[in-house]
Write a structure and sequence with these properties.
Blueprint (H helix, E strand, L loop, with lengths): L1 H20 L13 H33 L5 H47 L7 H14 L5 H4 L15
Helix pairs in contact: 2-3
């Protein structure tokens, strides 16, 4: 009887060992683990929503332009607003298309990088790559206005900030 329990214990330990080793499997959609891909996806959704909502605003601006009296300031303001809305719509469409392309490119890159990391038993996604992406994104969205970045040193300046 004691030999029987030893063999059962051996089989239980063996099955436990196999289940621990055999649990590693590839993720079929690694892009959903990639924070850069997810950021591209959120930006794509944001700009596509904006591009879809602007035509309604353009139509209402065109109606305002038609209703405005000829050679009046209202007509000039309505024309400027319409031009601005059309420009925003075009920009939103372009950015949505850009992020769609970037998203697809990143999806392919994610699959390749994930497979390499999976077979080499390396961590994925690489935190250094995401940190570099965040830093680059921050620099691209930084305010380019000199006055907002340079400290105001003169007390006579209306934008003077007292740091004391």
């Amino acid at each position: 009887m004691p030999h029987f329990f030893k063999t059962i214990n051996f089989y239980i330990l063996f099955l436990l060992f196999l289940s621990i080793i055999g649990c590693k499997s590839k993720n079929p959609n690694p892009e959903f683990l990639d924070p850069i891909f997810l950021d591209y996806q959120s930006q794509y959704k944001e700009f596509s929503k904006e591009a879809e909502s602007l035509p309604k605003q353009i139509e209402s601006a065109q109606e305002e332009l038609k209703e405005a009296a000829p050679r009046s300031t209202e007509k000039v303001v309505a024309r400027r607003a319409l031009k601005k809305l059309k420009s925003q719509h075009e920009t939103a469409k372009q950015k949505a298309e850009y992020f769609k392309i970037r998203m697809e490119k990143r999806r392919i890159h994610s699959k390749i990088a994930y497979e390499k990391a999976f077979y080499n038993d390396e961590p994925w996604p690489d935190p250094k790559e995401y940190k570099a992406y965040q830093q680059n994104k921050k620099l691209r969205s930084a305010n380019m206005n000199w006055n907002s970045r340079v400290p105001k040193l003169f007390k006579d300046n209306p934008n003077y900030e007292n740091k004391e």
